[in-house]
Amino acid sequence: xxxxxxxxxxxxxxxxxxxxxxxxxxxxxxxxxxxxxxxxxxxxxxxxxxxxxxxxxxxxxxxxxxxxxxxxxxxxxxxxxxxxxxxxxxxxxxxxxxxxxxxxxxxxxxxxxxxxxxxxxxxxxxxxxxxxxxxxxxxxxxxxxxxxxxxxxxxxxxxxxxxxxxxxxxxxxxxxxxxxxxxxxxxxxxxxxxxxxxxxxxxxxxxxxxxxxxxxxxxxxxxxxxxxxxxxxxxxxxxxxxxxxxxxxxxxxxxxxxxxxxxxxxxxxxxxxxxxxxxxxxxxxxxxxxxxxxxxxxxxxxxxxxxxxxxxxxxxxxxxxxxxxxxxxxxxxxxxxxxxxxxxxxxxx
Length: 349
What we know:
Structural class: alpha/beta
CATH superfamily of the largest domain: QueA-like
Number of strands: 17
Shape: globular
CATH architecture of the largest domain: 3-Layer(aba) Sandwich
Strand order of the largest sheet: 2-1-17-16-14-3-12-13-15
CATH topology of the largest domain: QueA-like
């Protein structure tokens, strides 16, 4: 398939630059590919009306690191930016370097007047580098003091409150970006959902380059995903399997949850197991879903792997039609934008 098949026109003013003060006040488009319906007269808090007792709502409890570090080369004073992608071993991390052409093996980068120093150990492709950090004290405390939230490039300024780029249930630190579909939930809404008899199931996927790396090939089949770390507990797996046995739905909140659930189900004939590891699963039209019955998701960038993933679930033509409807109705797009609930996957996919 050609990458241009996943393109659409988006006015720049519809790209949300700031989150709403009330997370659950964002708009919600409810779509059903089999009935070919678009219902856009909702706010996100109405999601509870579409969840049934016994259903499982699966959420990604990863926590975003203040992973953007701005420093300078010790040798020349040149400005260098590092984005922490994943911890490889001990104090060694895989990072995105900017500008990468200035970051060669052996150079030293200083942050915060030398409070933190990085030594480049290895050069990788696509601007990635393996660096080892040197410091006195606790690394994560220093990172909290010196790092910034790694907001997407289409968001033009840093947040006054970094917690706005965290879900209210964020727990396990390790992400380079937020699982943004979960940003719509408040603690009050989650409490109401539980009281209705819906199971909240938490899994972890640390968002890295695999989720937000742009597609640079014409034929989408040639794109390669980078691996991201995931984890599912035995309790989570047991709850999901029981729901499946009782004919209840597995509802995924966000593409990171979808990728985790589908990775595990693909290895266990559609069921769930306690598991952890690295996934580079790549979902695009033609993929057969095994784990997910319905999904909550944001509106994604044109020609991205994320719009391909939802197209595989609900049909490319239908999804693009829904996106045109969202543009017409002036929905807010991307990380701080509005949400979509896809009630079920297309039957003939």
